[in-house]
Amino acid sequence: MAREFMVPGRIISGAGALQMAEPALRAMGTRALIVTDPVMIDLGNCAKVEAALKNQGVAYSIFSGVTGEPTDRMIEAGLRAYREGNCDFMVALGGGSPMDAMKAIGSLVAHSGKIADYMGKVIDVEMPPMAAIPTTAGTGSEATQFTIITDTEKDVKMLLKGPVLLPQLAIIDPQFTMTAPPAVTAATGLDALCHAVEAYTSRRAQTLSDTFALSAVRRIFRNLPTVYQEGRNEEARVQMSVAALEAGIAFNNASVTIIHGMSRPIGALFHVAHGISNAMLMHKCLAFALPGAYGRFADLGRAVGVAGDGDLDQTAAEKFLAAIGEMLRQLEIPTLEAYGIDREAFFKAIDKMAHDAMVSGSPQNTLRDVTEDDVREIYKKLW
């Protein structure tokens, strides 16, 4: 069966990528809206992007109102900044939140409604040109047709999608990831690992997505523990930046599965950062998924070297799951309790979370059939 495979229009990666990308930025328009967060300004990262635009004579405005995972209210504020600045293209600088915000803002530039209007629909509207500059090696949003925005009225993280959300330019410059602290490095790196593993074990996997997913998993296993311990290790940072891009390309074309489906409700209701909620769920969700895809998980175990060709698929798959558990331990991922979430409040929310997870459609991509009751039981096992 024929399948479409989508990647960003242009990718510039490696040390010095921002400088190389300057002419490409100039070609995108005459006035940019830089979509970012206050931390990027404080760290001096935004100033580097400003300099790149100035070098090319491109005017710009800055919207730094992405103060957490993006909400519909942040998107409305960003849209006002775009219009008031008379902008004609956008540059996102940051982790997944600024990149997701940029996409959502862009989808409303020629549309008079609200971002929630797109819930359950494929976004297909005229978009301004977009460039994405990730500062973490994790979300892969620079390579996807997805954006996740919280509907503040309904307390739901909306997974919105459409090919028009794919940035025209992705600038993968490791200089920006060097400033990520260990906890952020761990959370975003594990987010990328979830993307790659879920893409490889998705019902919607295809040959090309498999190629990118396997490569991403290998890179992450080799380099994530290193960058967690040695944040200034440039080569490991380069490899993680590439891995996050590969994982983004993989899940953009194969989708995610049960981990992400269950993660979004935790984030929406308890304000747990996306990468952390994924990591909290990862071992329990993959343990559930394993019996439906021993062969696929076995491939992953062999790819990272924890299983050999002589291992039966079930054994190789279980060795991979054990390796995931060991990585979570090394990266010091907290439990829900350690994160400060109230147990009673969490259990009261399980029915809503299970419903919202299934409505998202992601759990249904898992190769093992998933019911709402299954999701409830996995949530309970987190305590």
Give a count of the beta strands, DSSP E runs of length 2 or more: 8
Q: Which structural class fits the helix and strand makeup?
A: alpha/beta
Compute the separation of the termini in Å.
43 Å
Q: In DSSP terms, counting alpha (H) and pi (I) runs of 4 or more, how many helices? A: 15
Reported for the largest beta sheet, the result is: 6 strands, parallel
Q: Estimate the mean pLDDT confidence.
A: 96
Low-confidence stretches: none
Radius of gyration: 20 Å
Biggest sheet, spatial arrangement of strands = 1-8-5-4-2-3
Beta-strand residue fraction:
5-15%
Helical proportion, percent range: 40-55%
Shape: globular
Order of helices and strands: EHEHHEHEHEEEEHHHHHHHHHH
How would you sum up this structure, described in words?
By secondary structure, this protein is an alpha/beta fold. It contains 15 helices and eight strands. The chain has helices spanning 17-26, 38-42, 45-55, 72-84, 96-108, 182-200, 207-229, 234-254, 258-270, 274-289, 294-303, 313-330, 336-339, 343-360, 372-381; strands at residues 10-13, 31-35, 59-63, 89-94, 130-134, 146-151, 156-161, 169-172. α5 (96-108) links the parallel β4 and β5 (130-134). It is globular, with a radius of gyration of 20 Å.
